[in-house]
Amino acid sequence: MVTRGEALISAILFLIALLMMLGAVLSVIRAQRQEQIAKVHQRLAAVAFLPQETSKPDAQLGTLTAALDLWLKRVGLNVSPNMALLMLAGVVLMGVLLWQNLGALVGIGWCVLATVVTVLVPQVRYRQKVNRLVEQIPLFIDQVVRGLVTGRNIEGAIKMATEDLREPLRSVVIRAQQNVELGVDLGDAFREAAQFYDIKELHLLALTIHSSRVYGGSPREMLESIVSMIRQRQQAQEELKALTGETRVTAWVLGLTPGVLVAYMLWQNPKYMMTMWDNSTGQAVLVVAAGLQALGALVMWRMIKSL
Question: Whole domain around residue 303: which residue ranges?
Answer without folding.
Answer: 244-307
